[in-house]
Amino acid sequence: MAVLSSCEEEEYAIPTLPQKLQNDVIKRTLGPNLTGLNIEFAYAMALPKSMGKLVSAQVEASIAGAEATYLDNKSYYTNSSGVDVGIEVGSKSVNSGNKTTVTFTKDTMAATLRYFYRIPTSAKGKEVTFKFSATASNGESVSYDMGPYKIAEMDMVLDLDVKDSSAAYISIEDMAVYNPTQAAANAAKIDLVYLYRAIPNITFTHGLVAPSAKTYLPGVTLPAGVNRTTKVQKVWALRDFHLARLQYGIYIDDLDFQQLDLSTAVDYAINLRAEAGTWVETADGKYRAYIYINSINNATKSAKISIKRFTMK
Amino acid sequence: MIKNIRIICAVLLTTFAMVACKEDFPVDEDGLLITTRTQCYVSNFELLGSDLQTVRTSNAVIDTTAQTVTVEVFYGTDLKNVYPQFTLVTDAKLEPKITGKTDFSDLANPKQYTVVSGNRQVRKTYKVNITVQKP
User: Which of A7, A134, B14, B78 is deepest in the core (most CB within 10 A)?
Assistant: First the structure.
């Protein structure tokens, strides 16, 4: 009898509208949270028309965001072409300490505001939480907690131009590219040499070679003191979303660097193609990095690279 | 009487069930089926680098009479960290097993792999000769 009755269909009832101010939040960004990038949220709030209108919306972060942090003063809808169109509903947001506030200027009872938290350098390796809150003209207020979110310890640099025999010396410590003169001045920090060679009978093309791997540096005269042995391992099709900015939802996180084992890796990588990459560990073991090849150009013997770097403890 | 019949039926059913579970096919120590096939050869060979892309410059040459696999790899291949892949005739297996990255850097002493036929009676040892492309 009990079994039979449980199969009985319940009649559908139209949900009743709660007579109060309500809110909801979704996080829009995916992947690890890197300093200098945004964490984006969409904050929705509404109350029945008969009860009043929205007065203000506020986000409080546990760690104050960088200057570029803002709460959008527009509420968006998607038009028939799939484009998000913003309608201004409030004054430009004001940052005050940890808080970012928008005051509504339009008579509105429902809005979804986007919040862009620019991750400050001070938050690196820490956790950050957010408290979204809204107030209505009838004096009601609601809030919604999000987080905690871990801020990654990685550093990132995008679109460094490397060129054979000129801007060819890469320093992982400085996350920069040097020419031979600068390389001589920073000799102890040079981890890799970029070169392009078209050698008959073999496939060399674009290479990232440690100064120690002389065999794979044909025709390169290293500046005095440039001699580090860097561990390098070629990778294919690891198109990190932050570095490649392509459609692939792949992210390299702190954990990938922590678990990376390059103990048997060599000190050179040649025949690199666009969208390939290399895992790198510096000679002193202090840094691990992933160098992504955004693009290559055989004619100008150059490439564009992006780097994610993790400092080992 | 009815009770006794029931018991007898139950015992019989259990016996049948046990018989049905008995293994009819011989398997080896890896749990692989031992068959009647006697063929024993390598049909294809692939070598992948640390980036899981091929390091071969051309197809591997497999000599089933001399029992050799000859393959040329790109200049600059890190032979300490390569992944070999053998394609074998139906039902055959390879010894030693390939478990991951393999060190092929000792070019003077080519690595050897034994193919074992489907009936596990025929064993043929193949030598993997690697040459590196030269400028």
Answer: A134
What is the layout of strands, in order, in the sheet containing A231-236? Answer: A155-163, A302-311, A287-297, A276-281, A231-236
Q: How far apart are CA A204 and CA A33, in angstroms?
A: 36
Q: Give the structural domain span for A131.
A: 22-150
In a domain, A3, yes or no: no
Neighbours of A24 (CB within 10 A): 13
A76 with A164, same domain? Answer: no
B135 touches chain A (CB under 8 A): yes
| Pairwise CB contact (< 8 Å): B135 & A199 | yes
CB atoms within 10 A of CB A239: 19
Contact B60, B71 (CB under 8 A): yes
Tell me if A202 and B74 make a contact (CB, 8 A cut-off).
Answer: yes
Q: Residue A140 domain-assigned?
A: yes
Entry pTM: 0.83
Q: Flag whether A192 is in a domain.
A: yes
One domain, residues A199 and A61: no
Residue A14 lies in a domain: no
Query: Would you state the pLDDT for residue A17?
Result: 85
The answer to which of A105-119, A252-266, B20-34, B113-127 has the lowest mean pLDDT is B20-34
Question: B42-132, what's its fold?
Answer: Immunoglobulin-like (2.60.40)
ipTM for the complex shown: 0.74
Question: What percent of chain B stands above pLDDT 70?
Answer: 83
pLDDT in tens, B47-70: 999 999 999 999 999 999 999 999
A207: chain B residues, CB-CB within 8 Å:
76
Mutate to test the interface with B, among A214, A271, A272 (most CBs of B within 10 A): A271
Report the residue from B81, B101, B135 with minimal CB separation from A201: B135
- Is the CB of residue B133 less than 8 Å away from at least one CB of chain A? yes
d(CA A266, CA B76): 10
Name the pairing type of β-strands A70-71 and A110-118.
antiparallel
The chain B residue lying nearest A268, using CA atoms, is B76
Does the pLDDT value for residue A295 go beyond 70?
Answer: yes
Q: What is the DSSP letter of A49?
A: G
Q: Which residues contact A263 (CB under 8 A, 6 or more apart)?
A: none
Closest CA to A41 of A103, A113, A97: A113
Q: For A37-95, write each residue's pLDDT tens digit.
A: 999 999 999 999 999 999 999 999 999 999 999 999 999 889 999 999 999 999 999 99
Residues A179, A112 share a domain: no
User: What is the number of domains present in chain A?
Assistant: 2
